[in-house]
Amino acid sequence: MKVTVCQFDNRAEQVEDSFLSLAEHVQKNNSEFVLVPEMSFSPWLAASNKPTAEAWFEAVEAHQKMIARLDELGAKAVMGTRPAFDKGRRRNRAYLWQENQDLVEFHDKWNLPDEEDYWEATWYDRGDKLFSTARYNDVRIGVTICTEMWFFEHARAYAKQKAHLLCVPRATPHGSTKKWLAGGRAAAVVSGAYCLSSNLYNPKGEGDNLGGLGWIIDPEGNVLATATPENPFVTADVDIDFAERSKKTYPRYVAD
Fold this sequence. Notes:
twelve-stranded mixed beta sheet; 25% helix; 12 strands; 6 helices; 27% strand; alpha/beta
């Protein structure tokens, strides 16, 4: 199966161009599955420590409009996260879009940072700590949204659920890309799944502190492809059978 990850410029004036460029890449490479970053389709809300209802509603609306256009990418399935309301509470919610099917929403972000440029616990509420899988045909997909990746018990839980893909949509800063890539390799090994990550990107000094770098990593921790400023969209083949077999090998088979 061909999968695509990216670094995605989410500045208001760049979203349309980013989306169209991603669509061009996906169609050129005949990619089946696309991961977009955390809250891709609006400016990064958590850059400010002063939440406003107006900004939240604008972000919700922007995501609704772009999710309605995901068929334009040309993939069979797309995963990302979006701002959502749940019984009056704000959530950062993972979704899985599939061709000719209703949108599936299956996880709300649980581990929320709260610091300079990333005031997430200030902007929205924690989810219910359910790290369940979604399905695309016979492919089982787990998600750890950005900071959740560092809590490797989630990756271990997805190994037990026999996830084939572990998706990590992110919004992470310049200067920490090597650290995040190292964490992605560990998450792949712990889960026995292909670890896919896409990140938001604003050029230094031209927006928010969003540093890019996407990756595709196999279940043994080998980096198959990375998205960079020079090459913001990358595609690779993943072997679902290999991810299935990996659950029976070290360290995944070892009892807790």
